[in-house]
Amino acid sequence: MDTLAIVILNYNGQSFLAKFLPTVLANADGHPVYVADSASTDGSVAFLQANFPAVIVIQLPRNDGYAGGYNLALEHIRTHYGGATYYVLPNSDIEVTPGWLSPVLNLMKANPKIAACQPKIRSYSERTLFEHAGAAGGFVDWLGYVFCRGRVFATFETDHGQYDNDQRIFWATGACLFMRADVFHETGGFDAFFFAHMEEIDWCWRAQRLGYEVWACGQSVVYHVGGGTLHKSNPQKTYLNYRNSLFMLYKNWPADGWLWGKILLRLVLDGLSSVLFLKVGQWRDVLAIIRAHFAFYGRLPELRRQRTALQQQQKAEARLYAQSIVWQYFAENKKTFAEISGVKADSSAL
Q1: Labelling 208: which of 42, 161, 215, 320 has CA 20 to 30 A away?
Q2: Which of the four pLDDT bands, split at 50, 70 and 90, describes residue 233?
C-alpha cells in the first residue's frame, strides 16, 4: 500500500493538464500520480498516454461530477492498485509548489484524529491573494453559510503570513483536499447527489460527527486558477451552491437544533441575495436560486432518510460558528476574518 496517492479528476481539462501536471510530477516526492478521466471529449486520455507515461490513467464511464467521480476513482485505486493511507485531490487547475506535501502529511501523521487537511490556497493570477476556494481553511455559520480564513464572501486578503499556523477548522477545500483513506471509505465517500460544490464541506461535517478533526496546514501553499470546469459567473454554479448548502444543512444539523426555523431564515436571506443579482442584471442566477429551493423540497424524503442514518451513527458534535457571517459582513461591515467578533487571525478555534 502506498503512503499517499495523488489523484486528479479531469473532465475536458487537457489544457490544464498540459500546464500544471508537470509541476505535480516534479513535486510528487515519489508518490504515484493518478488522473481519473470523466469521459472527456477533448482528447485528454490520448494526450496523457502520449505525453505523461508515468501517470496512471483511470478511465471513468461518465461525468459524475467531483463527488461521484472521486467516489469511483478512489474505490478503483483501493481495489485495483492496493490503495493508500492518504489521498490528496488537487484540482487540475492547481499549481503545486516544492515541499507542498510533507508539511501536511507530517501534521496528519502526528495526529491520527485528522481526517482531512488543506494547504493555503492562493490565487494563481494574483499570487499574494488568497483564492476563493478554501483560502486558509473554512468554517460554517449557524445558518449554513460558509467562509474562510483569508476570504469572507467577496473580500480576499493578502497573505502576509497571518495564517501560517496549523489550525483546526471546520472544512478543508476540495480544490486540494488531503484525506485519510480509511475515513473516506468509512463514511461512504462524498454524497454523489451533490455532483459538485460543497460535497467536501458535507463530507468534513460528517467526518467530524464520527469524532474526527479537520485542519489547515499553514506551511504548505498551492495556487489555484479557479472556475476551471464551471466558472463562478455560470448560473449552474449558483444553483449547485445554493441547493447543496440546503442539502448539507438539513442532513447534518443537530437533532435538537431549530432546523426549520433556520431553513425559513435561509429562504428569506437567499431571497435577499436574489435582489443583489437582479440589481446587476443577473436574472438567470435568480432563477437558479429559485430552482435550488424547489430541488431541496423535492428531495426532502431522501434527505430525511440520510439525516436519520447520520444521527444514528453520530459520536461527536461538529462545532459551528455561532453567529451569522451574513449579518457581520453586510450589516456590521466586518469584511475580514480578523474583524469577525471574538476571532483573531491566528486564533486556534472559533
Answers
A1: 161
A2: low
Is residue 198 located within the same domain as residue 273? no
Q: In the chain, how many domains are there?
A: 2
Specify the pLDDT at position 232.
60
Where are any strands of DSSP class E within the chain?
2-10, 33-37, 56-59, 84-90, 94-95, 114-123, 138-140, 146-148, 151-152, 155-156, 167-169, 176-180, 213-224
Q: How far apart are CA 271 and CA 193, in angstroms?
A: 24
Task: Look up the domain containing 258 and give its range.
Answer: 235-319
Question: Within a domain: residue 293?
Answer: yes
How is residue 8 written as a grid cell?
486528479
What percent of the chain stands above pLDDT 70?
95
Positive or negative torsion for Cα 15, 16, 20, 24: negative
- Tell me, what DSSP letter sits at residue 231? -
d(CA 203, CA 188): 9
Q: Which three cell numbers stand for residue 173?
A: 477545500
Residue type, 261: G
DSSP character at residue 192: G
Closest residue by Cα to residue 120 from 111, 109, 112, 131: 131
Asked if the structure places residue 210 within a domain, the reply is yes
Whether residue 174 sits in one domain with residue 267: no
**Residue (of 115, 41, 37) closest to 76 by Cα position:** 37
Out of 224, 244, 270, a domain closes at 224
Give the domain CATH number at 20: 3.90.550.10
Q: What pLDDT score was predicted for residue 342? A: 60
pLDDT on residue 343: 56
Kindly state whether residue 230 falls inside one of the protein's structural domains.
no
With a cut of 80, say whether residue 272 has pLDDT above it: yes
Q: pTM to 2 decimals?
A: 0.94
Interhelix angle 283-298/235-252, nearest 10 degrees: 30
Residues 129 and 270 in one domain: no
For 183, list phi and psi in degrees, rounded to 5: -70, -40
334 domain-assigned: no
d(CA 272, CA 292): 15
User: CA angle at residue 206 from 317 to 342, to 5 degrees?
Assistant: 50
